[in-house]
Amino acid sequence: MSAAATIERRFTTELRALGRKLEGYAATFNAEADLGAFRERIAPGAFRAALAGDILALLDHDAGKVLGRTRTGTLELREDGHGLAFAIQLPDTQSGRDVIALAERGDLGGMSFGFTVPEGGEAWQGETRTLTAIDLREISVVSAWPAYGGTEVALRARAGTIAVHRRARALRLAEARQWA
User: Locate the Prohead serine protease domain: which residues (predicted)?
Assistant: First the structure.
């Protein structure tokens, strides 16, 4: 990657937490995002080559708020048929505690990821870009709105309570999309 390459960021909303573990999807395949000037989707397999690198998990894309990383095993990433799945072992830091508190309340906006596109890693059809290869740099837990829909964020610590909140949040999001 050249020094002039710009890191792009995209957002999703699929998260679950279990104690100090946050998991979900940082990106979903074939979900179309309207990015204003163009539309974008991610093809299955787009992250495959990037998963061997050292990827960071951050809070709001802030490199000063590291939540985990693949090199240490505190961040696990894998592709499946749905998208880019992740699991973060949240640290006992202020940022980690904040993420847990916000996830328990259902206040997190979702997930985001920072990336570059390698040469030949995109295909255009009209105003729609399909990402076929992504150089993933980081994933981030975000407190704002995601660009990509179809994902969720939740804490798994209290399975029964969280499931109820998750269903209620999904209903609110579906209703909001209906009126948007």
Answer: 20-158
The first and second tokens of residue 2, run together, are: 């050249």
Neighbours of 89 (CB within 10 A): 18
For the chain, list the domains and their CATH numbers: 8-179 (3.20.16)
Instruction: With beta carbons less than 8 A apart as the criterion, state whether 147 and 56 touch.
Output: no
How far is 67 from 132, CA to CA, in rounded Å?
A: 27
Query: pLDDT tens-digit profile of 140-163?
Result: 998 765 555 544 454 444 344 444
Burial class (CB in 10 A: 0-12, 13-18, 19+), 144: exposed
Token pair in block for residue 66: 């590291």
Beta strands in the chain (DSSP E): 8-12, 14-18, 21-28, 33-34, 39-42, 56-59, 62-69, 75-79, 83-89, 110-116, 122-125, 128-131, 135-142
For residue 145, the SS3 value is coil
Q: Give the per-residue pLDDT at 174.
A: 54
131 strand-pairing partners: 42, 122
Q: Mean pLDDT in the chain?
A: 80
For 45-69, write each residue's pLDDT tens digit.
999 999 999 999 999 889 999 999 9
Both tokens of residue 124? 């255009």
